[in-house]
Design goal:
The protein has helices spanning 3-21, 39-44, 55-59, 64-80, 124-177, 185-212, 224-235, 258-275, 307-310, 328-338; strands at 23-29, 35-37, 83-93, 96-109, 112-122, 220-223, 242-247, 253-256, 281-290, 293-300, 343-347, 353-360. With 367 residues, it is α+β, with helices and mostly antiparallel strands. The chain has 3 domains: 3-122, Beta-Lactamase; 124-216, Signal transduction histidine kinase, dimerisation/phosphotransfer (DHp) domain (Helix Hairpins, Orthogonal Bundle), CATH 1.10.287.130; 218-367, 2-Layer Sandwich (Heat Shock Protein 90). The protein has a 5-stranded antiparallel beta sheet with strand order 2-1-5-4-3, with helices on both faces. A 5-stranded mixed beta sheet has the order 7-9-10-12-11. The chain has a two-stranded antiparallel sheet with strand order 6-8. The termini are far apart. Pfam families: HATPase_c, HisKA, PAS_3. Residues 155-363 form the Histidine kinase domain.
C-alpha cells in the first residue's frame, strides 16, 4: 500500500473512531486566533462542516459559567505553557444543551506559546447517565437514613413510653397524697403542668414514630397561628432571655397534623435559642400565603449555620452542635415533605439563620 493509500486508510480509521467516540480535534493559532476544526467538532457545535469559524462566535455558544471558566484556564495554560481538561456546557441551538469534555495543550516554540490544540468530545449522554446514577445513589442514601431513623425512633419510643407512664403515675399519686388543705393553687398548677407536659411528650413521640414509620398521620384543617403559638409555649417552657416576634395574619389555615408541625417548630425554636450564646435571643416567626400553600419562616439573631453543613443541614446526622445527633432537622424535613411541602435553610447576612417551610392550605381555601 502506497503512502497515499495508507493516509486514506488511516483517515478512514480516524473518522470511524471520531464518529463512534463523538470526539474531534481542534487547533487555535495564538497569533491570529485562527481556528481549525475536524468534522466532529463542527457536528458537536451544530455548525455545518467547512463553514468559516471564528473564536468570538463560538464562545457565544458556551453557557456563561462554562465560558468564564474556559477563559480562565486557557489564560493560565498559555501563561505557563501547560494544558487542562474541562467539562463545559454549550448551547448549539436555543432549545438544546450539550456537555462537552474539552482538553487543551499549549505548543511552545523557543519557549514562547504559539498555538493551543486539543480535543472536544460530546459527553451529553455520559453526563445524563452519571446524573441519573447520582440521583439513584442519593435516593438510596436517603432511604437508608430514613430506615435507620425509623428504627431509632421505634427504639426511643419503646424505651421512653414506660418512664413517661411511670412519671405520670407518680405525679397522680403524689397529688392524691397531699391533703386538700395543703394543695395550694400554685402547687395544683404545677402538677397539672407536669402531667400535661408528660402527656404531650408521649404524643410527640408517637407522632414522630408515625411519620418515620410511614404510617398515617392525623391531618386536618388547623388554625396556623394557634398551632405555632402552642409550639412556642412548649419550646420555651423554662427558658430565659428568649424573645419572639410574630407576624402571622389571623385566619391562616393549613391542612396538617398539628402535633407533627408543632414538633418541627419546637425543634427550630430550640435550635435558635441554643445558637445564641450571649445576650437575649430574638426569634422572628412570620407566615404568609403562597399560591396553594402557606409559607412559615423562623429566623434568629445567632451566628448562623456552619458553612460546611448548611448545604446538607436536612440530611440525617448533620449537626452544627458539638453534642447534637443531627436528626432534628432531618426529621423536620421528613415531616414537611410528608405534608407535600418543602423546607430550606439559609444564613441572613448580618443576622443569623433562617429556616422556611411550606404547608398546604385546606382545599376549600385554595384559589
Amino acid at each position: 500500500m502506497g503512502d497515499s493509500g495508507e493516509s486514506a486508510h488511516f483517515k478512514k480509521m480516524y473518522d470511524r473512531v471520531s464518529t463512534l467516540a463523538k470526539i474531534g480535534v481542534w487547533e487555535c493559532d495564538l497569533t491570529t486566533e485562527e481556528l481549525i476544526w475536524t468534522d466532529m467538532v463542527y457536528d458537536i457545535f451544530g455548525i455545518p462542516r467547512g463553514n468559516p469559524i471564528n473564536r468570538e462566535d463560538t464562545l457565544r455558544l458556551y453557557e456563561p459559567n462554562s465560558r468564564q471558566e474556559l477563559e480562565r484556564l486557557r489564560s493560565e495554560a498559555i501563561e505557563r505553557g501547560t494544558g487542562f481538561t474541562l467539562d463545559v456546557r454549550i448551547r448549539p441551538h436555543a432549545s438544546e444543551v450539550r456537555w462537552v469534555r474539552l482538553t487543551a495543550e499549549v505548543e511552545l516554540e523557543e519557549g514562547k506559546p504559539v498555538r493551543i490544540f486539543g480535543t472536544k468530545q460530546d459527553i451529553t449522554n455520559e453526563k445524563a447517565a452519571s446524573d441519573k446514577l447520582q440521583s439513584i445513589q442519593t435516593e438510596m442514601i436517603h432511604l437508608s437514613r430514613g430506615s435507620a431513623m425509623g428504627a431509632m425512633a421505634s427504639t426511643i419510643a419503646h424505651e421512653l413510653n414506660q418512664p413517661l407512664a411511670t412519671i405520670s403515675s407518680y405525679l397522680t399519686g403524689a397529688r392524691r397524697r397531699i391533703p386538700n388543705e395543703h394543695l395550694t393553687p400554685d402547687l395544683s398548677e404545677c402538677f397539672d403542668g407536669a402531667l400535661n407536659a408528660t402527656l404531650r411528650a408521649a404524643q410527640i413521640i408517637r407522632s414522630v414514630r408515625a411519620v418515620l414509620g410511614k404510617s398515617g398521620s392525623k391531618k386536618r384543617e388547623a388554625d396556623l397561628e394557634e398551632v405555632l403559638r402552642q409550639a412556642a409555649d412548649l419550646a420555651l417552657a423554662g427558658s430565659e432571655n428568649v424573645l419572639i416576634s410574630w407576624d402571622v395574619p389571623p385566619g391562616l389555615a393549613v391542612y396538617a397534623d398539628s402535633i407533627q408541625i408543632q414538633q418541627v417548630l419546637i425543634n427550630l425554636i430550640r435550635n435558635a435559642s441554643e445558637a445564641v450564646q450571649s445576650g437575649p435571643c430574638q426569634i422572628d416567626i412570620k407566615a404568609w400565603p403562597k399560591h396553594t400553600f402557606i409559607e412559615v419562616c423562623v429566623s434568629d439573631n445567632g451566628p448562623g449555620l456552619p458553612i460546611d453543613i448548611i448545604a446538607d443541614a436536612f440530611e440525617g446526622f448533620a449537626s452544627g452542635k458539638s453534642d447534637g445527633l443531627g436528626v432534628g432537622l432531618s426529621i423536620s424535613r421528613t415531616i414537611i415533605e410528608a405534608h407535600g411541602g418543602r423546607i430550606r435553610a439559609e444564613n441572613v447576612p448580618g443576622r443569623g439563620a433562617s429556616v422556611s417551610f411550606t404547608l398546604p392550605q385546606p382545599a376549600d381555601t385554595q384559589s
